[in-house]
Amino acid sequence: MFPSLARLEAPERPVESTHADNVARRSHVGGVRTGDGARERLGGCREAAVRNEGIRKRRTLFWFACVPTRVLVAVGAAVLSTVSVDATRVAGGAAFLVAFGFVAAYAVDAPTGRFGGPVWWSRARLGHAAMYAVFGACAVAGLRTAWIVLLLDVVGGVAWYVRWSPREATECVGAEGRVPPSSNRAGLIRTGTLD
Predict the structure, then answer these.
(1) CA atoms within a 13 Å half-sphere pointing along the CA-CB vector of 24
(2) CA dist 118 to 9, 110, 112, 169, Å?
(3) Model confidence over 126-154: pLDDT tens digits?
(4) How far apart are CA 81 and CA 150, in angstroms?
(5) What one-character-per-residue DSSP string does 53-98 give?
(6) What is the CA radius of gyration of the chain?
C-alpha cells in the first residue's frame, strides 16, 4: 500500500560479523570514512599524539634544563663580579666564545637541535649572541653589573619561548592532512599542513 515505507525498513543484519566488517566500522570515525586508500584519521591522531609527546619533552627540557642553566650562568657571573674585576674579565672572554658559538649555530642552521627536535628557535640565536657579546664587552671593560645582561638574556629567552614555541595539537589531523582551524589558532602549524 505504501511503497515508500518499504524502502525505509532496515535490512536484517547478520548476527555474526567478520573482521572486514569490524575494520570498516572502526574506520568510520567522526563522520569521515577513512578506507579506500585515503589517509586514515586515526593515523593523523597518532601523528599528533607523537608530535605532542615530543613537544612536552622539549618543554620539560626547556623549563628544567635550559632556563636553570642560564640562570646559573647569570648567578655565576654575578658571584664572579664580587670576587674580582679580573675574574669578571675572564668571564667576559668566555662569553665572547659563547656568542661566537651562537652565531656559528645560526649560520649552520641545523634543522634539528641537540635533543633531536626541530629547531624553531634559530632566529633567537642571534639575540642570545648579541646579549652574550654585550655581557662580554661590559665584563672585559670591568663593569661589575655586567651580569644583569645575562639575566636579561634569560628573560628574553623565556619571552621568546612563550611567544614562538610550538603548541600542542588540540584536535586530530583530518583525512586530507590539514590541521583543523582551532589548532591553527593555537599556533601548532602555521601553514595549516603537516611538516
Answers:
(1) 6
(2) 55, 9, 4, 16
(3) 999 999 999 999 999 999 999 999 999 99
(4) 13
(5) HHHHHHHHHIIIIIHHHHHHHHHHHHHHHHH-HHHHHHHHHHHHHH
(6) 27
Polymer length of the chain? 195
Nearest to 194 by CA among 185, 176, 156: 176
pTM (global) more than 0.70:
no
CA–CA dist 175, 39 (Å, integer): 5
pLDDT in tens, 101-124: 999 988 988 777 777 777 888 889
Beta bridge partners of 29: 32
At residue 29, the pLDDT reads 42
Q: Show the cell assigned to 80.
A: 664572579
Beta carbons of 117 and 125 less than 8 angstroms apart: no
Q: Using alpha carbons only, what angle is made at residue 40 by residues 172 and 167, rounded to the nearest 5 degrees?
A: 25
Please give the grid coordinates belonging to residue 151.
639575566
* The three cell numbers locating residue 147: 651580569
Q: Counting runs of H as helices and runs of E as strands, what totals does the chain give?
A: 8, 2
Sign of the dihedral defined by the CA atoms of residues 48, 49, 50, 54, in that order: positive
Number of Cβ within a 10 Å radius of residue 51: 19
Residue type, 182: S
Side chain identity at residue 60, one-letter code: T
Sign of the alpha-carbon dihedral angle for 31, 36, 39, 40: positive
